[in-house]
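Project standup — Tuesday

K.O.: blocked on the structure for the chain from last sprint. Re-posting the sequence here as requested.
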Amino acid sequence: MSLSSRTNSKTASISSFGALLTSSVLIAQLRRKLGPPPVLHTVRGVGHLLR
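H.V.: unblocked you, prediction finished:
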């Protein structure tokens, strides 16, 4: 494996991790704004559901 492919792989995993954190923060902020009772639910393997 060349250095450039290892670097690209590492960069891709870091950027996808950053996107995951960003979406988690946005979902948390939305849940806080909607307040109780919980209206926004996480569906594992699918995404989020608004009920």
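K.O.: great, moving the ticket to review. The CA atoms of residues 32 and 38 lie 9 Å apart. The longest strand covers residues 40-43.
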